[in-house]
Specification:
The model has no long low-confidence stretch (mean pLDDT 87). It is globular, with a radius of gyration of 12 Å. The protein is built from no helices and 8 strands. A hairpin with an 8-residue loop joins strand 7 and strand 8. Helices cover 0% and strands 43% of the residues. It is mostly beta strands. The protein folds into 2 domains: 50 residues, no CATH class; 47 residues, no CATH class.
């Protein structure tokens, strides 16, 4: 399995977050840091997040293994376009499926 939780941190959320989506230190994805929520959390709750390693993230588009990926505004990943690179896909996925991403 590709899950490799080499570094996790705990965040205080400022908005609701969904497991397996990108989040930032503010608790929702802003593109500042490459973190992945390990669980669901409501606003003003704490959530564990992966900060380094490989972890499954929900796909917002079709992704092939080896693609560089970025996150959309909801924290889901898609093939890199004009956004900020957050990692490289280790597995392929379709919309709504989990794609294992090696965080940059």
């Amino acid at each position: 399995m590709y899950e490799n939780n080499t570094l996790t941190i705990t965040l205080q959320t400022t908005a609701a977050v969904t497991a397996n989506t990108m989040v930032s230190a503010a608790g929702n994805y802003s593109g500042l840091l490459c973190l992945v929520a390990m669980g669901d959390a409501l606003s003003n709750e704490t959530v564990a997040a992966v900060a380094a390693g490989a972890f499954p993230i929900i796909a917002a588009g079709t992704i092939s293994a080896g693609d560089e990926v970025e996150a959309d505004a909801t924290g889901k990943v898609l093939t890199l376009g004009t956004g900020k690179r957050v990692g490289v896909a280790l597995t392929s996925a379709s919309v709504g499926q989990k794609c294992v991403v090696l965080l940059k």
